[in-house]
Amino acid sequence: MNTSPDRNLFGEPMEAPAGENSSDRTSDNPMEAPAGSGNIGEQMESPTVSPHAGEPSATQPQWRPLTGRQRRVAGVLLEKAKTTPDAYPLTVNGLVSGCNQKSNRDPVMNLSADDVQGALDELRELGAVIEVLSSGRVAKYRHNLYQWLGVDKVEIAVMAELMLRGEQTVGELRGRAARMEPIADVGALRPIVQSLIDKKLVVALTPEGRGQMVTHALYPPHELADIQARIAASSSGSSEEAAPSSTAPSARARGRASQDELAELQVEVAELRAEVARLREQMRAFESRLGVPSGSGAESSPDA
Q1: Rg (CA), the chain
Q2: Where are the domains of the chain?
Q3: What is the tens place of the pLDDT at every residue in 135-155?
Q4: Closest Cα partner for 48 from 90, 4, 9?
Q5: d(CA 108, CA 97)
Q6: What does the pLDDT look like over 60-69, one tens digit per residue?
């Protein structure tokens, strides 16, 4: 892999530290981070930042429809770059585990190492994934999806959730994407979703409003058409069932609103439980390093 010393692992221009000219750099190791530069995974996950606020990157989006395996592998790379930067980039084995995990995935898959490697090779051909080597010479992989999709940090978190789970309501999407990037509420998410719709990366499956369903546009045309037809039929059936009993529309509207709010809360609770479990695992590892007996401290507290 040819990597310019003036560009990071995404091929993005890197600014030289104060008083240093970029031509003075001698290191050609793409995994080497400058002193004090922070976590390598976080650096590689960062998008291109235009030198002029509000101006788009010079790199034009290159995206095209992907297969189910390709979407799953790309989605896992996006997710892990944000949620576990210390373990990023990922090996093939790491990707197999991420692709096949039971939580935060729909549908649940059972991909082999060969399946994942094949998807990686295809994504590399498309320019969406890049292979890097660790100090142990084990091949690892990182995404190039900021440039490939032409999105920012919050938009890519939304795309990751849609690629990992498929169609969902905006309320569900807010709760799930917020584990990767701060999104205060559904109101804060709506302009982000609209931006992705404008970029042709997201498709609205139902009209705007509470309970609106959206999905990504990375499906092959026939898959997207099938999803749109299924959601349209489901929405039509719901409307027909509701029509004979429309004598109390305000009460039913309040009921639907409450159901949507409940669904959003359930998603948030599930994500919080997953985060607590992750923090407990980190605490166990930390206590093990310090030689602290397991079961001490907050870990022994019962669940709320």
Answers
A1: 22
A2: 68-148, 165-239
A3: 678 899 999 999 999 999 999
A4: 9
A5: 12
A6: 789 999 999 9
pLDDT digits (tens, 9 = 90+) for 228-265: 999 999 877 655 554 444 444 444 444 544 555 565 56
Nearest residue to 195 (alpha-carbon basis) of 163, 164, 156, 161? 156
- Residues whose CB is less than 8 angstroms from the CB of residue 4 and which lie 6 or more positions away in sequence, other chains included: 11
CA 181 to CA 79: how far, in whole Å? 11
CATH assignment of 165-239?
1.10.10
**Gap between the Cα atoms of 227 and 177, Å rounded:** 21
**Rounded to whole angstroms, how far apart are CA atoms 126 and 62?**
8
Equal CATH topology for 68-148 and 165-239: yes
Q: Which CATH architecture has domain 68-148?
A: Orthogonal Bundle (1.10)
Residue whose entry in the numeric block shows the structure tokens 């692992």: 9
Q: Find out whether 121 and 69 touch, Cβ atoms under 8 Å.
A: no
DSSP 85: G
Name the region of 67 (left: φ>0; alpha: ψ -120 to 50; beta: rest): beta
User: Which H, E and C letters describe 221-235, residue by residue?
Assistant: HHHHHHHHHHHHHHH
Cis check for the bond before 221: say yes or no (omega within 30 of 0): no
